[in-house]
């Protein structure tokens, strides 16, 4: 039965007051009844515009129909045909720029809550389904996957399902990539990531943590010494950028990656963790993406007054809408159209403030974005004993520095075609390592596509 | 999980352990380091590879007890395990074309300097060593250095052992008398800063091994950033060795103290085991 309600059924969330000190997940998810109601808002248009917005073409109207009919497991099955990480993507995809952007219901009122429904179906599945542990029949091919972020995980999962013997090499002590070290618990519970990794293990995938490729083994050695027939590089884009302004080397200045890694991977916020985290009283976060929101909200939970400093306006914030809303609810201040020019320090090289200039948006550039220009004489200072730089990242440097013959682009990204083939035979790549920092779903899609192409390559060799 | 094979105390503050890590032993070169975690709740700390034994699959590290993690590490015995041991990380020390070198080690830095001296020697270079300590009881590896060096000097601040003063005096004497292709300085930041200043007038290539605070060791967090020649470099992937004449030592010294108060707390927790040498 069609539900004409113009807006999404509200998502239950943890109380904003309480979550300032809570590291638990903020959005709590639909119950069955609400999910069915929300699913009934779908018009089932013939053209299926939502699917065009999905980077991996999930059959959205079909899975929504299953939810509306109360067949939640069936809904999950449909999503899982094309997505390897539904519980993750339902939580972190920028739906307002993808599927939901094209939803006809969004024309008047709000689009169908596709992300929320995806999350519901995935959570339902994990709560109820018993996964078979049938190992796929082995095809005798051995493949190495470097990096265990969404790209590596998706690639490894797909290859394992096709019968390849897969080993994932991960530099850190835990698998999961950004899902583990970057995106905080309050947005993506680590339990979900661990479950995905457990699923891969049950498919027979070997995961070797503490293994830095390029140092321990080069890509070449993975093939020659360890005998892997193909290698997939999903090493991500973790190299943080800095602004190059005065004072960036001061104490109290961090990259968002450092701050979030200390908090998420090293659990620095927990009482018994040995890893220190700098508990600033006044924290300024520079940047406007998801990373900036996460760092700001983490700092807030660690007890700070937090200001986000961004050089464009509210409309231009690249972060997921929902995260911006949550950040505001949690009392984070936004200083928009402002750009730092210097980090002020005391005599002992501690950060004490951020000197900024006001910006105004000029004419749209080639990409249609209006680029900000500084207003002369508009300098002002924000007090801050901690400054977190969330200015974006570039592809991780180690592989390109240690792999001879691997073609890379101007920003250090690994050059790969649509199918993930690099300049080296038998070496494939995908995810942020190829595109620069992008999204979980794009990385996952690239990993899956590369797996297909690896299978073709292996067949061609035999 | 990796197992500790052997453990030996070199002085009251400095301990050497050998860890079973055959893959790392196979690949490691002088100047590279590992990152380890003692247990699942622990911090990740970098330690330089002090030696390898490929046959036994052993990797040696030598560490000074300075804070929580090194204290916890010092409590471990042969047969115990460590949660993580990652490496080899960083670039090996560049010895290409060096025929005659001075290796300067300070304090626990001597543990890092020794494999560099050894590798130079194996490559056929003449090696002159100058090592320095606060006092006699902290002297480590002096015999090892003496045995492989073409000339050898050891200093202590109080002069009870070796020459009195710091490493710069014997170093300057060497530089006055002869010309060298390179000087390798490995030790506390203030020492490396002084060595850099001492060698500058002689225009001899000087390489310092930087030891900033690190987390991942793969270029992902940026906390190991050091300013070299006005540019920001990441010690874990671009280093740890840099041209000493271009390093902004003052910034590096300030940055290394970033977590001082937190460490004081961690020390409290382990206080009955705490022993400290202030270098
Ligand atoms: C804080 C933060 C918040 C984000 N929020 C969102 C969001 O809400 N929605 C969204 O869609 N996207 C978000 N993103 C972006 C998204 O997480 C990434 O686009 C995605 O994780 C990229 O996946 P990947 O597999 O390519 O790389 P990564 O997830 O970066 O994984 C790469 C892995 O490779 C490992 N590695 C690197 N070098 C080596 C080596 N030499 N040897 C072995 N292993 C190596 C790394 O340790 C890492 O585990 C966010 C990113 C961050 C940092
Ligand atoms: C590439 C590299 C190689 C290293 N090799 C060795 C080695 O071979 N042997 C060895 O004993 N140490 C080495 N260090 C230093 C070692 O990593 C630190 O002493 C260790 O992290 C301290 O941990 P902790 O928890 O015991 O002390 P903390 O509680 O973290 O610190 C205690 C005291 O040590 C200082 N400190 C913290 N981190 C560092 C650091 N990275 N360098 C210098 N001082 C620091 C703090 O300011 C504080 O005063 C190396 C560091 C790097 C980056
Ligand atoms: S240790 Fe994180 S970038 Fe070097």
Mind explaining what this structure looks like?
The complex is a heterodimer of chains A (462) and B (279). With 462 residues, chain A is α/β, with parallel strands linked by helices. Chain A has 3 domains: 16-128, Alpha-helical ferredoxin (Fumarate Reductase Iron-sulfur Protein, Chain B, domain 2), CATH 1.10.1060; 142-238 and 394-461, 3-Layer(bba) Sandwich (FAD/NAD(P)-binding domain); 242-389, FAD/NAD(P)-binding domain (3-Layer(bba) Sandwich), CATH 3.50.50. Chain A has 17 helices and 16 strands. Chain A has helices at 16-19, 32-39, 49-52, 60-68, 72-82, 86-92, 114-128, 150-161, 178-181, 190-202, 219-224, 256-265, 290-301, 321-329, 398-402, 432-435, 440-461; strands spanning 142-146, 165-169, 206-208, 230-233, 239-240, 253-255, 282-286, 305-309, 333-335, 338-345, 351-364, 370-374, 380-383, 386-389, 393-394, 427-429. A 5-stranded parallel β-sheet of chain A has the order 3-2-1-4-16. A 5-stranded parallel β-sheet of chain A has the order 6-14-7-8-9. In chain A, helix 8 links the parallel strand 1 (142-146) and strand 2. Chain A is globular. The mean pLDDT of chain A is 90. Chain B is an alpha/beta fold and 279 residues long. Helices cover 28% and strands 32% of the residues of chain B. Chain B has 9 helices and 16 strands. In chain B, the strands form 3 sheets. A 7-stranded antiparallel β-sheet of chain B has the order 6-1-2-5-4-3-7, sandwiched between helices. Chain B has a 7-stranded mixed β-sheet with strand order 11-10-9-8-12-13-16, with helices on both faces. In chain B, strands 14-15 form a two-stranded antiparallel sheet. In chain B, helix 5 (168-177) runs parallel beside helix 6 (189-199) and helix 6 packs antiparallel against helix 8. Chain B starts with a strand and ends in a 10-residue tail after the last helix. The A-B interface holds A 171-173, 181, 209-212, 215-217, 238-240, 242, 244, 248-252, 254-255, 257-258, 261-262, 266-267, 272-276, 278, 348-349, 396-398, 401 and B 23-24, 27, 32, 37, 41-44, 68-69, 72, 83-89, 215-223, 225, 227, 232, 234, 237, 248, 251, 254-255, 257-259, 262-263, 266. The complex binds flavin-adenine dinucleotide (2 copies) and FE2/S2 (inorganic) cluster (FES). One flavin-adenine dinucleotide binds next to strand 4, strand 5, helix 2, helix 3 and helix 9 of chain B.
